[in-house]
Amino acid sequence: MSEDAMILAHIRAAGSITPSQAYESAGCLARHSAIARLRKRGHRIICTMRRGNGKMWGEYSLSEPQQLALIPSPACYAD
Questions:
Q1: Tens of pLDDT, residues 43-75
Q2: CA 16, 18, 20, 26 torsion: positive or negative?
Q3: Residue 54 region by backbone torsions, left for phi larger than 0, else alpha for psi between -120 and 50, else beta
Q4: 3-state secondary structure 11-65
Q5: Which of 12, 41, 50, 76 has its CA 20 to 30 A from that of 2?
Q6: 50 pairs with which residues across the strands?
Q7: What does the mean pLDDT of the chain come to?
Q8: Distance CA 38, CA 45 (A)
Q9: Which pLDDT score, from 0 to 100, does residue 59 have?
Q10: Can you give the pLDDT at residue 30?
Q11: Distance of alpha carbon 9 from alpha carbon 71, whole angstroms
């Protein structure tokens, strides 16, 4: 399995991936390059910045497709 495939599988299974998880699961040190390749293939991946213990890192996850709210027209309420 390729590095990109392992990262995508981890995101799908766990919901997101951090730098340490990318290294542990795929041996990936340059996850930003793998994410860029996945995005180029059409995967909607977002990065959320996290902070803790005086450090800052990016956590990648799949973006949910935006759902359209169906708003009934006034005609739906006519008697």
A1: 999 999 999 999 999 999 998 764 444 555 454
A2: positive
A3: left
A4: HHHHCCECHHHHHHHHCCCCHHHHHHHHHHCCCCEEEEEEEECCEEEEEEEECCC
A5: 50
A6: 57
A7: 82
A8: 8
A9: 94
A10: 82
A11: 36
Tokens of 25: 């699961």
Binned at pLDDT 50, 70 and 90, residue 25 comes out as confident
Length of the chain in terms of residues written: 79
Give the residue from 36, 33, 60 showing the smallest Cα distance to 49.
Answer: 60
Give the pair of three-digit tokens for residue 37: 């390749």
pLDDT at 2: 87
Q: In angstroms, how far is CA 27 from the centroid of its own chain?
A: 19
- What share of the chain in percent tops pLDDT 70? 80
